[in-house]
Amino acid sequence: MKTLLGRRTRALAAITVTAGLALVAGCSSDNGGSGKTTVKGVHLVKAGQLTTCTHLPYPPFQSEINGKVQGFDVSLIDLVAKDLGVKQQILDTPFENFKTGAFLNSGQCDLAAAGMTITAERKKNVDFSDPYFEATQAVLVDKKSGITSLADVKAKGKKLGAQAQTTGEDYVKGKGFDPISFESSDAVLNGLRTGQVQAVVIDYPVVQGWLKDKANADAFKVVDNLKTGEQYGFTVKKGNTALREAVNKAIKAAKADGTYKKLYEQWIGPYSASVASPAAS
């Protein structure tokens, strides 16, 4: 997944799980005047809300639609917030902080949700939830380029793009490519659209959503689907077992009652249980 350094951090309007949803009774104050509370055994950095760090835009997982942050990740974390009886509020932050856990450690966010791949390196800094999505990397090309595979990009001397410091970029670098780096998924796709590159490597769910636009589908196509074994997870501060378990509980319940499938089809596309709903790691 992705990263961006130096992006301006901006708070976004709180996303209401249910209009007028109130705090559950029995919330206790924590750390005096710090504003923290404990809800159902989960310590929250700000009273009355579950504060989520993300990195925008990254459709279909999170992006602003009609002035509101929406997407698959947003909807799943809404379920966690609902179980806790609080509202979700989203903070847009540089993705680099997701890898280091900086915003979790500084108490700015309770958790991070940004379509982030679970890796051994990242586990050194943050605790991941159970995996909630299995992702593959797509090779998307301009139909006029004549490219038919990832290998063809190099063979034909074409330019390849990828999002900076992502698993997709790491993958192609490991294959001997020197891709042009872009700061966000939108920038990657715009680079392809404007001819800066003739092919890009990017998470397949992003491509699925992008190709729903007929103009994009008419001009671009997927020529390779790279099964890299990536799974997405939400992250919490190291040692925050209570919140991690609350997230896992919400994901498990959503899969059991059909909510996960409904949200998957709403935001991503046709649902395949073997791909979309990986077993817990």
From TrEMBL:
Residues 49-270 form the Ionotropic glutamate receptor C-terminal domain. One of its GO terms (molecular function) is ligand-gated monoatomic ion channel activity. One of its GO terms (cellular component) is membrane. Pfam families: SBP_bac_3 (PF00497). Residues 49-271 form the Solute-binding protein family 3/N-terminal domain. Residues 1-24 form the signal peptide. InterPro entries: Iontro_rcpt_C, Solute-binding_3/MltF_N. It comes from the Bacteria. Keywords: Signal. PANTHER family: ARGININE-BINDING EXTRACELLULAR PROTEIN ARTP, MEMBRANE-BOUND LYTIC MUREIN TRANSGLYCOSYLASE F. This is ABC transporter substrate-binding protein.
